[in-house]
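1st attempt posting a full record on here, be nice pls
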Amino acid sequence: MSTTIDRQALLTRLGVADDVAASDNPGALAVRSPVDGAPIGSVAVQTPADVKDAIGRAEAAFHAWRSVPAPKRGELVRRFGDALRAHKDDLGALVSLECGKILQEGLGEVQEMIDICDFAVGLSRQLYGLTIASEREGHRMMETWHPLGPVGVISAFNFPVAVWAWNFTIAAVCGDPVIWKPSEKTPITALACQRLWESVAGDYEHAPEHLSQVAVGPADVGEALVRDPRVPLISATGSCRMGRSVAPVVAARLGRCLLELGGNNGMIVAPSADLELAVRAILFSAVGTTGQRCTSLRRLFVHEDVYDTLLPRLKSAYRGVRIGSPLADDTLVGPLIDGDSHARMEAALAQARAEGGDVHGGARVLEQEHPEAFYVEPAIVEMPGQSAIVLEETFAPILYAMRYRDLDAVIALHNAAEQGLSSCIFTTDLREAERFLSPSGSDCGIANVNIGPSGAEIGGAFGGEKATGGGREAGSDSWKAYMRRATNTVNYSNALPLAQGIKFD
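the predicted structure (as tokens):
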């Protein structure tokens, strides 16, 4: 694709041209593209009162949708997946335009939406309970799962559509409507998804209105969603700071939280590692999405026997990375989301230097061509040890490289981060690999061998431990978060025996 794009034609094809007005529209949220800093347009903003109304509509939708058989709910999600297939190129381009990730990653994010639709369709026929052996004669026990209620989804800018799709498609087949508060930096992709959904749901006889709603606005819009007891589940993706503000509020009303927060992800490169494979994995994991993934590689522990071989190769690979418009086919690294992100990157590099780090790269580039955009060279910082800045997650392409000697010691260093999202080891030693995956190995929700920490598949439950929040989305049995469990006992005898042999005559 060309580095230029007819933005108005793109918005028209996705059905959001009427939602996106001139950027000087009073009271609206102005949206600028990180590609060049130019305005895309502006969108209407909701208020906390609007959110309360949306929750009321979601409640009404829930009362109808929960009685629709799950396979019929799955059929609607299947049709939505087909609509995503038909609009994949346009929606992928809009993702790149609005959040700055390269086109291949934008298209990949939409493919992830399609994949989770397929997963959810299959799941709609597999919401299994259990049959349980009863100790009482003439009794049958079973476990059943039922729709939970309206779900609030708060998403971040770096995955502006996929994370919503993880939640929405599974919630929908489980019988739950969703109210989505997207990032204020990427609201247009959310509106595009909403229009695609409406075009499908409007033709489906079993679908009530308002199964999906979008609430665009500042923090008080999300707060209204978080505080309302009519929303039994809040699924929030963002920083650890955000999670620490959301969780107590939801807990105070005895609601449920599904939190996907920060990740200070590490890789251990052992002496036996395939170094060519490791370099390729490091490069994508550290610089993909310009270091703005929760699963981005940030800490690299390299055994002292291979450090002086690996680091020169890695620096050479970094020098070959093509930086530029994410809409160009040959670009590997696009811009940071905004100037604030650039300022945080510069501050982190300055602190790393003060803590003894040797910084390679990290400069701002393309400033003449795009003075309102923030393109940077990915940085490798060779550190003498795991200092304070290394343990701080900076949402930017900064990779801290450190030497290690002992496996047990480096696993302890790896686990010293407050976050526990994704991790990996590169080794051809079976004992090292299994040690890393064992209970005394990585303490992260995701632990890989000979593959980087970034790029999870939807078939596995996604999420992490510690300050990462403990939530799980997408595959495995994550569907249970969107449902309530009931234990049922049926007495088909003419007696009334009590459990535990209690006599009450």
